[in-house]
Structures are given as C-alpha cells and as structure tokens.
Design a protein that fits this description.
The chain has 448 residues and is α+β, with helices and mostly antiparallel strands. The protein has helices at residues 18-28, 34-49, 161-173, 189-201, 228-235, 329-348, 398-411, 427-446; strands spanning 2-5, 8-15, 52-55, 66-71, 76-81, 114-115, 177-178, 204-206, 209-210, 215-216, 248-258, 261-264, 271-272, 279-280, 291-298, 308-316, 352-357, 363-365, 368-370, 374-380, 386-392, 417-420. The strands form 6 sheets. Strands 10, 11, 12, 13, 15 and 16 form a 6-stranded mixed β-sheet that branches. It binds zinc ion.
Length: 448
C-alpha cells in the first residue's frame, strides 16, 4: 500500500510497510490487536496530515482501489472511494477491492443486520489475546460497525465485531474441527461449551478480567441479578477504565433468532437485543438455525440499571451437540454428508484418518487470502496428510456466484476441490453424490 496524492494516485507520498498494510486490513476486518489498531490509527493520521489518499494493493496490476482518511470529531476512519461514489463514468479508474480484501465494497442493498461480507474474512492472528469489549465511547479509531444512522451504509458492512470474537473462541476451542474418528471425539453440548470456556480463559477483556470470567452460558442468568455471572460483573466495576463501557457476555445455544431477539434453547423467554441481531446472509433464512449466539450486555445508559443485551451475533451451527459452525442450511447438509463420509470410510478403512475443518478465517495463498467452505485433511497410515477442499455452491444471488467464482481461483492453491450443488442432495442423486465423494477422496489418497 502507498499514500498517494489526492485525485492523482500515480504520485506517491509514502510507501507503507507490509506490516502496516496488514494492520490496516486487520483493523477494518475487526481482527486487530491493540498494536494493530495503534498502527492503523498512525497510518490514517499520517495520510490525513499529508492530505493524501491510501492506495490499496489487493488487485493484480492496473488501477488500485483508493481509501480516503477521514477525521470525525474524535475519531479517524477510512472512506472507500469507488466509482459509485461519484459519477460512475467519471471514475472508472477506481476499481473495487479484491473480494478477499476486507475493504471490499458490497453493492447490494440487503439490510445491514446480515453479515454481507461473509466470504471476506481476515487472516487469523494467533498472537492476539485481547478482545474488544463494547465499542469504547470516545474511541480514537471509529467503530465502523456501530449503529450511528448518520454514517453512510457502505461503512456499516465490516464483519461483526462480536462475530470476530466468537470465531476466535470457536477456533481456539477447535469447535470448527471434527477430529478423525480414530481419536474417538466426544461431541456433546456440555463438552463443547467446556472447551469454549477454556478458550475464553485465554482471551482477555481487561488486564485483570478474562473473557471467561465475564461470560455466562446459562440464559437464566440474564434475569437473575444474584447469579454468579451478574455478581462478577458487579465486582468488575472498579476495573473498567474510564471511557470503556462495563460489559458482560453470554454464549447461548439458540434454536432461533429474530431481528431483535434470540430464543435460548435452555429457556422459554426470549432475550431482547437492543441492536439488530447479526448473522451470515446465506441461503434460506428459515433453514439457517440452530445458532450459537454471542451477545454482550451493558447496564443501561447510566451503568446502574439491570443488564441489557446490546448486540448479538448468531452463528449457525450443525447442531447442539457439535456446535460445528456452518454458514447456511445448505452447508449444514454438506456437513452432514462429510460426517457420513468420515464414518463410512472409518468403517471401510480404519487406517484412513479424516479431519474435517470449517475455516473461520482466511488462509493465505500465493495470490491472496481466501476462505474455503470445508477442508478435509486425510492421512493413510504413516503417509503425510493431504489437504482436500469441499466447496458448497449454493444457488443464491448472482453476486454470490460472482464472488465465489473469484475466490475459487485462490482456493485452488490450497488443494484439489470437490464441488457440491444443492441438487446433489435430491433424492435421485443423494446416494450417487456420496459414492462420488468417497471415490474422489480415495483417488486423491492413491495419487499421493
Ligand atoms: Zn483492497
């Protein structure tokens, strides 16, 4: 990335380090450590002082997308300059970002509660231990995902901040991995929640408070001021720095969610949520659940009142035993097929190990970052494992198909791809699809 002269991007004012570009993308993709945020803030400020624009480098050659540093009252942010911002004919030299770049502009007018950039995920940063609490009120870096309606909608489609926290927990806990059956995985809701809790113990909200200490997995705690969770939140009060809102988290398995409420499976009362509940926009909404929902609470505007759910992210999961994340009902069907594959090959070839992963963050390829739908790691006896990719081609929007098309070029670098379409699950085709997948996996291993 470079800082360039406004309206004249061929003139360079400064060249950014690779680590600076990584920090900017991490900030925008809600995957930034506090170091990243400090670096991002520094760059945006510097570009503002130089009165320049930041030129991205996510495309291969030609014109690169441009970002304008913006100073709001107390915050700095970036506005994405694309042809649609002005006369479209006049700015053909302002291309959109690559689909895998967190700055990618999504042009559909879908409601903002959905995570429209579902296919855009930053690279995972394993070195990050701090998570963001509720958006800090006097943030110096703007919280672009906030709900200020005066902000233009195009800046509201960053991946959900809570979603980012949930994905990090799921990844740390390995909830997105079904181990080989040889390892005898014990997949039960209680075990999965226990693993998520120990992952949350490794994440910090404040120096003295881990995410786990501020987290409840029991919906009834929401209405019970005497619960251990609410008492801990009270105890934490003096430890919150000025300007940070005191907050707690709930991780709830939910059968369904609506625009402003989640229905916990363990309780008959819905939890009303102040902001719109966010979830990935893929496939039929009626088939999306059940969900694993992460929500956070505050204590009303004066920090004195009863807990109030402020925002929530609902991640669809395969079922309540595995909590295996999926992006749609169709991906749930594909997961079902993959679990069947794992079982059937375990029975037929006990020395063939298959690990199934649903990636939550992007992987790096030589030509850019991408997130495949499913990754199989197969290993026969002592042979080194081979990575295979399974892609679920939902028949959603034209825009989805276009995005998929572009990411496929990247995904090819990660391994051979098996494509699954919705009609592969029709009664007439289901058996055949299973057999083809089995044969494909075996052929891939033979070719090792
Ligand atoms: Zn870009």
């Amino acid at each position: 990335m470079r800082v360039v002269v406004r309206n004249s991007p061929t003139h360079t004012l400064a060249v950014l380090e690779d680590s600076e570009a990584v920090a900017l993308r991490a900030w925008y993709g809600n995957a930034a450590s506090s170091d990243d945020e400090a670096i991002a803030l520094g760059i945006i400020r510097r570009a503002k002082v130089m009165n320049g624009w930041i030129e991205c480098d996510c495309l291969n050659g030609g014109h690169q997308p441009l970002l304008a540093p913006i100073q709001q009252e107390h915050t700095f942010t970036l506005r994405r300059l694309t042809a649609k911002d002005v006369d479209p004919g006049q700015h053909e030299e302002r291309p959109n970002h690559a689909p895998s770049c967190p700055f990618h502009v999504d042009k559909t007018a879908e409601p903002a509660l959905f995570d429209r950039g579902f296919y855009i995920r930053p690279l995972a940063r394993s070195d990050r231990t701090y998570i963001d609490a509720l958006p800090a009120i006097p943030a110096r870096l703007a919280d672009v995902s906030g709900q200020d309606p005066s902000r233009s909608r195009e800046r509201n489609d960053r991946p959900s901040r809570l979603g980012g926290i949930l994905w990090r927990m799921l990844e740390k806990a390995g909830t997105n991995v079904i181990p080989p059956l040889q390892d005898d995985p014990d997949l039960k809701l209680a075990n999965q929640l226990a693993r998520l809790r120990s992952a949350a113990r490794q994440l910090r909200v404040l120096r003295t408070w881990t995410l786990n200490a501020l987290l409840s997995t029991w919906a009834a705690d929401y209405w019970n001021p005497d619960s251990r969770w609410q008492r801990l939140l009270e105890t934490s009060r003096p430890d919150w720095p000025e300007g940070l809102r005191r907050t707690g988290f709930m991780l709830l398995f939910s059968k369904s969610v609506s625009t402003h409420a989640i229905m916990p499976a363990s309780c008959l009362r819905p939890v009303d949520v102040l902001a719109k509940v966010r979830q990935p926009l893929r496939g039929d909404p009626a088939r999306r659940g059940p969900f694993l929902t992460l929500l956070n609470v505050d204590f009303q505007d004066d920090d004195e009142g009863p807990v109030r759910a402020v925002q929530a992210y609902a991640q669809p999961v395969y079922n309540g035993d595995t909590l295996f994340p999926v992006d749609s009902g169709f991906e749930r069907d594909v997961s079902h097929l993959l679990f069947w594959l794992q079982r059937s090959l375990f029975d037929a070839a006990p020395e063939l190990r298959i690990k199934i992963t649903k990636p939550l963050f992007a992987s790096q390829t030589p030509i850019g970052a991408c997130r495949p739908d499913f990754v199989l790691e197969v290993a026969y006896k002592d042979h080194p494992p081979k990575r295979l990719i399974v892609e679920a081609f939902g028949t959603e929007t034209e825009e989805y198909r276009e995005a998929k098309e572009k990411t496929l070029a990247l995904i090819k670098h990660l391994g051979p791809i098996f494509a699954i379409l919705p009609d592969h699950f029709d009664k007439a085709n289901a058996e055949e699809t299973g057999r083809r997948l089995q044969e494909w996996v075996i052929a891939q291993i033979r070719g090792m």
